Amino acid sequence: MDRRVVLGSLAAVSLGGIAAFFLLRGGDEAQIREALARLAKVVRIAKDDSPLGRAARIKGAFDELFVERVSVDIAELPDAKPGRVELVRLASAAFGIWSSLEVELADVRVSLDAGASGAAVDARAMLRGARAGGDEKGDARRVALRFVKESGWRIASVTVYPPPNAE
User: Fold this and answer.
1) For the purposes of burial, counting CB atoms within 10 Å of the CB of 128, is it exposed (0-12), middle (13-18) or buried (19 or more)?
2) Within-domain flag for 19
3) Staple partner for 113: which of 4, 9, 118, 144, CB 3.0–4.6 Å?
4) Checking phi first, is residue 65 left (phi over 0); if not, alpha (psi -120 to 50) or beta?
5) CATH code, domain with 64
């Protein structure tokens, strides 16, 4: 067999394998969007959730989704301290306020830094659920997140802005 044909075939197979790896793995933006979808799913509260089960689910996922010293800026919680442990505590405390909660992120804009070592995400977080007392409630907020590429894409800062109609 002609050596050029063999080398060409090997090159084509190699390039195909590399392309398939990147397509199946998804690009940086796709990985960030997957992390956002996972975050929205993890913080949801189902009526049959137990506080312990939810806390364990949140801790496990937050260990993978957030850097250890994540910066936290939430309009209604000006005293929120930085760190993943504090963020797990805050997210777990929602169980006492909500009996059910769904979170959806919409209007998501991802801006990758040059070199793709970081990314800024701007989105609208929409919450819908029932308060512990039974009242149905909805809310929408602008959120900004900063992702860094550290053992995969992880969130380094979270900012939750006040509702648009807040004074």
Assistant:
1) middle
2) no
3) 118
4) alpha
5) 3.10.450.50
Q: Identify the pLDDT of residue 49.
A: 82
Domain residues for the domain of 47 are 27-160
Distance of CA 29 to the CA centre of its chain: 12
- Summarised one tens digit per residue, pLDDT across range 122-142 is 999 998 988 877 788 888 999
CB 64 within 8 A of CB 9: no
On whether residue 14 sits in a domain, the answer given is no
Each residue's pLDDT tens digit, 16-52: 334 434 443 469 999 999 999 999 999 988 888 888 8
CA geometry: angle at 96 spanning 91 and 100, to 5°?
80
Residue 15 has pLDDT above 50, yes or no: no
What tokens does 59 get? 């801790």
- Assigned domain for 74 exists: yes
